[in-house]
């Protein structure tokens, strides 16, 4: 049976399906290197524009905690396929629900948070808001002690060109996002805080965390999910520094060599 092919890439398997696109694991037919391909499902102008917007935002992105754009392909049927770097690892949602149902060790949550804050620093500097910072969009690479923020389908430029997110994941979305207001850096900060409260074994609705989570760390994440965006921190660099100080005070070190054990 002949393999499905998109441009110079053979499709290996489908690895995701969103509201407007399928995501595939693919392999370059000559280089034999893996790639990730997102192809719009419906041949609508709106869906195509969303994929093009995502590609434009990723065009100049070069950061170890962000995927990179490889190519944009138009198929014979009129659909578009965006080729990105393949990010191996396991998403934070699966790690929490499958490997650590009672909550992930706070020390691991700290370094994961700092990696994502590094991605925010880069994105926000260039005027980009991710818009859907849920646990499923954080790929964790334990051996490299890295976390990669993926899926830019809802990303917008907060400079004014794009003024409204077309959708979001309600459980991890900021209040202003649910109200349909323009996304801002504080919107991403909320999503990260909510994700980490969840990963620690906490409850998003009640904004509570297990007593095993150090109090200073609890306060750190709770400030990120304040209802009023004007009362939330919005500086990723300052947040990373603050978290580093908390790690030093609580754990006696600003970095960790502990291994996060995951299955699969």
Brief account:
With 264 residues, this protein is α+β, with helices and mostly antiparallel strands. It has seven helices and eleven strands. Strands 1-2-3-4-6-5 form a six-stranded antiparallel sheet, with helices on one face.
Would you mind describing this structure in some detail?
The chain is of the alpha+beta class and 264 residues long. The chain has 2 domains: 5-85, Phosphorylase Kinase, domain 1 (2-Layer Sandwich); 90-251, Transferase(Phosphotransferase) domain 1 (Transferase(Phosphotransferase), domain 1, Orthogonal Bundle), CATH 1.10.510.10. It has 7 helices and 11 strands. The chain has helices spanning 45-58, 92-99, 106-125, 175-178, 185-199, 215-224, 236-251, and strands at residues 5-6, 9-17, 21-28, 34-40, 69-74, 80-85, 90-91, 128-129, 138-141, 146-149, 156-157. Strand 5 (69-74) and strand 6 (80-85) form a beta hairpin. Helix 3 (106-125) runs antiparallel to helix 7 (236-251) and helix 5 (185-199) packs antiparallel against helix 6 (215-224). The longest helix has 20 residues, at 106-125.
